[in-house]
């Protein structure tokens, strides 16, 4: 057999050996929103999940204990065949009604219209058709039930024709959710699943306050596009009738196009009201909406409709928080809408309303090292205390949530950083080089830009050739500071400057306002680091943590996707991203940590100087009844010491048609479905990386089960590195050999990574005297490591 025929047919061997995977539509199972996005402890309620390719969903997976959910109904668009059948039924009903009522004029118009839609016929043919209909329905009856059936059928057709503008939320799963009274409050993740597919996660909260929810939109025809582009209220703007709630409470809702939701409550004079919205927190990024999320606004009105307070954000956070002191006993209204009156079913929100504690900022923004106790000032509303002591017990640097004592889920939680370096506090005055604060490196300075146009200057001694890194952590720690760093020598000559530095680990940050710079010192002497706010603003909440010292090479890791599905024994692709810090460029070995038996990584080396690698996860030979949580870690050697870092699961999310973000998730969940497909596997033969000469070829050998029919399928490289491709596929003594070629102009000696092979194609079979071709899903093989070498 010729190599070209082998190339065209090898895929069937793999598909037969591994067994057909799930249909493509199930593999694409995804969800865009859940409403309501949470519930109170002890409550049972209905929730709606909007997504696509929901056929077959039968289970709900909620992280943590105490939340049970079941799917009770699916609402999906009508398929083409069913739609045609409905249209034929309407034709028949209309014709029968016309004959029974003797309304032959209507019948003539109906048939003329029907013929005009299909093919033109002469008058004689139309007359014959009319006579045939009269004869067909002679003696028939027409009842109220028939009229109802006609109206309902027309409604179903109308609903099917007006398909949702966004197919990503064009199908609905109706859930029955029960939250145990002792369920731990806080943030969870909700996924839905078919027997062979697991969806992406959505944020779902377990709350402690009474909850009120507006009725969910459950008719697909109600799905509308978020297309309004004006900041002026459109003429069609409507305010929903205010729902009455009793405070404190959480209210849930969805904003549809041009709509405004309102909630009425009673309050007493002097009450200090906090109204905090969660919108972008629930759905961080929307692919087809600008700016890429539901931009909520909040307002408080009195009973006469007078606006008393308004907010459209909180510092730099798009989710608004409003504080208002009630002036008199009476009824008040909280209003929520989109800033430019867009709306759609995935514009989901939760609003917490009441005289509740809310932390707006803390100082300092962090503390350390391990074992240290840090006195922290709390600023906010309705706080039980304004100072607390944080006892750092974690030996590793990181960021952890901080809240008012005993109010973890009722107050605004703020991030609090810990580190292993020595720390000190900024000392005023330090506004100029003459008043600069002397520091000894390495150090972390906890400070504030206390007023508009304030400047903090720090002085340190340096030696020629020393490398210095300065990094501000402020915006990432909920501070509104937009920092600028400038490094100068003793003469005032600027050596380095930075305004904004992108931190890809901050997946919810769209304005990277923190600064980072690195510089080599030219001579022994004193150096000055200036820290200011780019917007010339300042205040008590403009805190920062400034790290100064030699580079600290390190890394963080993200794995995508956060939900994985595959058949027992199969391999599934993952992508791991390295977020390298302070110049670390070394190799990182990836490994499973405490994984159940049967799971294995293939191609688990993230090469030096590369920021991402695609690898494969091999699943156990037996299916699992429920999804499993996996933990990965990365291991590297930095400055002759071993370093291990967790691999954080994440979702690769698109914002506003163009921008992509790695949004951290709580868990990497893996669903293992179907029967064992590893009994006659296609095997990668040989050990070690495949060496491919630059501009040359190399062979990958596959062991293929004997007596496998080969036809109509192709073997392809999945998302191959640039310049690497399959040249041919040939039979070998023990299986198949794939000839891999490289383009010398697009590869470099020393380049490393993984090649992931997939088999895909179509299956032909006789049906009704004809041969019909059916598409089959692709199947992934374990990753093959490669290295480009000199020719």
Explain how this protein is built.
Strands 37, 39, 40, 41, 42, 43, 45, 46 and 47 form a nine-stranded mixed sheet that branches. Strands 11, 12, 14, 16, 17 and 19 form a six-stranded mixed sheet that branches. The chain starts with a helix and ends with a strand. α3 packs antiparallel against α4 and α3 (about 80-100) packs antiparallel against α6 (about 145-160). The protein is mainly beta and about 800 residues long. A hairpin with a 2-residue loop joins β45 and β46.
Short description:
With 791 residues, this protein is mostly beta strands.
Helices and strands in order:
Layout: H1 3-18, H2 24-27, E1 30-35, E2 38-40, E3 44-52, E4 59-62, E5 67-75, H3 80-101, H4 104-118, H5 123-136, H6 144-161, E6 171-179, E7 186-194, E8 197-198, E9 202-207, E10 211-213, E11 238-239, E12 243-244, E13 249-254, E14 259-267, E15 272-278, E16 296-302, E17 307-311, E18 321-325, E19 330-338, E20 348-354, E21 358-363, E22 366-367, E23 373-381, E24 387-391, E25 398-402, E26 414-418, E27 423-425, E28 437-438, E29 443-448, E30 455-462, E31 467-473, E32 483-489, E33 494-498, E34 516-520, E35 525-533, E36 543-549, E37 554-560, E38 563-567, E39 571-581, E40 588-592, E41 600-602, E42 605-606, E43 612-618, E44 628-630, E45 632-638, E46 641-655, E47 659-664, E48 668-673, E49 683-685, E50 690-693, E51 697-703, E52 713-717, E53 724-732, E54 735-742, E55 752-755, E56 757-767, E57 770-780, E58 784-789
Parallel strand pairs: 2-9, 10-13, 11-14, 12-14, 22-26, 27-29, 28-30, 37-46, 38-48, 50-58
Antiparallel strand pairs: 1-3, 3-6, 4-7, 5-6, 7-8, 7-9, 13-20, 14-19, 15-18, 15-20, 16-17, 16-19, 21-23, 23-24, 25-26, 29-36, 30-35, 31-34, 31-36, 32-33, 32-35, 37-39, 39-43, 40-42, 40-45, 41-43, 44-48, 45-46, 46-47, 49-51, 51-54, 52-56, 53-54, 55-58, 56-57
Helix pairs in contact: 3-4, 3-6
């Amino acid at each position: 057999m010729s190599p070209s025929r082998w190339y065209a047919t090898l895929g069937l061997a793999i598909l037969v050996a591994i067994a057909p995977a799930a249909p493509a539509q199930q593999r694409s199972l995804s969800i865009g929103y859940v409403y309501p996005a949470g519930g109170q402890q002890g409550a049972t309620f209905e929730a709606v999940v909007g997504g696509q390719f929901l056929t077959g969903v039968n289970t709900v997976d909620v992280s943590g204990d105490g939340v049970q959910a079941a799917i009770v109904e699916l609402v999906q668009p009508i398929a083409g065949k069913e739609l045609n059948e409905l249209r034929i039924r309407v034709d028949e009903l209309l014709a029968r009604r016309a004959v029974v009522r003797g309304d032959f004029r209507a019948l003539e118009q109906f048939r003329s219209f029907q013929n005009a839609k299909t093919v033109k016929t002469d008058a004689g043919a139309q007359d014959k058709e009319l006579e045939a209909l009269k004869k067909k329905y002679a003696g028939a009856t027409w009842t109220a039930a028939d009229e109802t059936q006609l109206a309902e059928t027309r409604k179903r057709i109308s609903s099917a024709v007006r398909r949702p503008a966004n197919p990503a939320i064009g199908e609905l799963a109706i859930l029955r959710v029960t939250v145990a009274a002792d369920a731990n409050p806080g943030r969870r993740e909700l996924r839905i699943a078919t027997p062979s597919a697991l969806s992406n996660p959505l944020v779902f909260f377990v709350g402690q306050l009474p909850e009120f929810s507006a009725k969910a939109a459950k008719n697909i025809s109600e799905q509308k596009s978020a297309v309004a582009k004006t900041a002026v209220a459109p003429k069609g703007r409507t305010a929903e009738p205010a729902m009455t709630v009793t405070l404190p409470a959480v209210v849930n809702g969805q904003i549809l196009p041009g709509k405004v939701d309102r909630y009425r409550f009673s309050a007493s004079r002097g009450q200090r009201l906090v109204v905090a919205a969660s919108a972008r927190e629930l759905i961080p990024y929307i692919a087809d909406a600008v700016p890429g999320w539901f931009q909520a606004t909040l307002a408080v009105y009195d009973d006469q409709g007078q606006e008393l307070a308004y907010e459209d954000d909180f510092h730099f956070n798009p989710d608004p928080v409003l504080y208002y002191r009630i002036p008199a006993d009476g009824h008040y209204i909280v209003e929520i809408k989109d800033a430019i009156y867009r709306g759609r079913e995935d514009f989901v929100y939760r609003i917490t309303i009441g005289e509740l504690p809310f932390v707006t900022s803390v100082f300092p923004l962090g503390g350390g090292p391990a074992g240290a106790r840090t006195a922290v000032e709390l600023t906010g509303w309705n706080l039980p205390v304004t100072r607390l002591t944080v006892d750092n017990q974690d030996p590793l640097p990181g960021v952890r949530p901080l809240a008012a004592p005993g109010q973890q889920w009722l107050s605004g939680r703020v991030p609090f950083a810990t580190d292993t370096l020595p720390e000190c506090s900024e000392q005023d005055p330090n506004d100029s080089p003459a008043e600069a604060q002397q520091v000894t490196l390495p150090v972390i300075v906890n400070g504030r830009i206390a007023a508009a146009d304030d400047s903090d200057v720090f002085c340190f001694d340096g030696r020629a050739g020393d490398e210095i890194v300065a990094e501000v952590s402020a915006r990432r720690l909920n501070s509104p500071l937009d920092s600028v760093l400038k490094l100068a020598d003793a003469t005032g000559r600027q050596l380095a400057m930075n305004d904004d530095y992108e931190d890809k680990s901050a997946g919810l940050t769209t304005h990277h306002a923190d600064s980072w710079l690195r510089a080599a010192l030219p001579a022994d002497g004193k150096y000055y680091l200036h820290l200011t706010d780019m917007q010339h603003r300042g205040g008590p909440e403009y805190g920062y943590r400034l790290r100064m010292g030699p580079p600290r090479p390190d890394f963080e890791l993200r794995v995508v996707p956060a939900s994985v599905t595959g058949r027992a024994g199969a391999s599934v692709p993952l992508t791991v991203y390295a977020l390298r810090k302070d110049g670390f460029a070394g190799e990182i070995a990836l490994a499973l940590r405490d994984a159940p038996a049967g799971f294995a990584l293939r191609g688990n080396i993230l090469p030096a100087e590369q920021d991402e690698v695609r690898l494969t996860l091999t699943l156990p030979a037996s299916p699992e009844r429920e999804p499993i949580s996996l933990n990965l870690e990365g291991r590297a050697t930095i400055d002759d010491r071993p370093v291990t870092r967790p691999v954080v699961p994440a979702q690769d999310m698109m914002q506003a048609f163009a921008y992509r973000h790695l949004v951290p998730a709580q868990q990497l969940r893996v669903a293992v479905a179907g029967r064992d497909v590893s009994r006659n596997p296609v095997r990668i033969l040989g050990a070690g990386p495949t060496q491919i000469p630059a501009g040359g070829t190399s062979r990958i050998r596959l062991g293929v089960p004997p007596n496998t029919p080969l036809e109509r399928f192709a073997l392809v490289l999945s998302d191959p590195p640039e310049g690497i491709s399959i040249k041919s596929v040939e039979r070998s003594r023990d299986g198949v050999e794939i000839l891999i070629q490289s383009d010398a102009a697009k590869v470099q000696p020393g380049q490393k990574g993984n090649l992931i092979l997939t088999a895909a194609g179509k299956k032909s079979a006789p049906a009704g005297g004809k041969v019909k071709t059916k598409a089959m899903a692709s199947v992934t093989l374990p990753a093959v490591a490669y290295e480009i070498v000199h020719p």
